[in-house]
Write a structure and sequence with these properties.
Length: 300
Amino acid sequence: MSEHNPFPDEGNTGHIWDDNLRELSNPPPNWWMMAWYASIAFIIGYVVIYPAIPMFDSYNKGDVVEGGVIQGGITKGVTGWTAIGEYKAALAEVEAVRKPYEDKIVAMSAKEILADEGLSTYVEHSGKVIFGDNCAACHGTGGAGNVGYPVLADDDWLYGGTIEQIQATITTGKKGMMTAHAATLSDAEIDTLANYVVGLSEGQSDEKGKALFQSKACFACHGMNAKGMAALGSANLTDGIWRFDEADKLASAKRTIAHGVNAPGNAETRNAEMPSFKDKLSEADIKKMAVYVYKFGGGK
């Protein structure tokens, strides 16, 4: 602060630097003061109308009761409104709309739900959320599949594609196994079988590969016609659907033949397991998933 004030009648605060730069004490403009008082009035009004000053346990308040809500906090507001109360009231309205459908789902089988047009449409919409939370990470949005995980929108089903079989798969899970043949087949035999399998998927066949397929008892799991067996979860080798590495079918076939799928003690085996959702989803939600997956278009 300067001891000498060269502007004694200016109304400055006495804070002067370099005999010229100074701090003035002019009052704020009227519009600014009006906005200031209006903001104070707004705060007071807000505290009166809405809950504003919370307590430490306020987060767990707001349960819906008859015509109002239980609130926490010091100031509860004259309207009885809370954000969590509004959320729970809205949720209760949604659940009231869903209840007739949900009650039917509990009482009906998945096949009966599928046959009920209105209920089936409801499941098609509500099941989308459950599928997204639990299934889409592996099977892709809309059941389009990912590398190593089955496509759910085609007609290729390892364990069967009826509504009952789909429900059973979701409920109990599946973990099939293909034996690793690296120790029992020569490299030449693996090449022959791999070429035979790739040829089958392209509508071709060769007698040498077919003879080896039969002599090594591959038909015991994949069937004499190589179309697989749902009871064993063995793959259909005659279609163009590849679960693993479709970009290089021959290399993929060689690896699977040599190292198998879920083969114990083989570090290079394919790992493929469908987990059980019995303890994760309710029975009603499992029915929804079965119907939802079936309606992708691949169900039989």
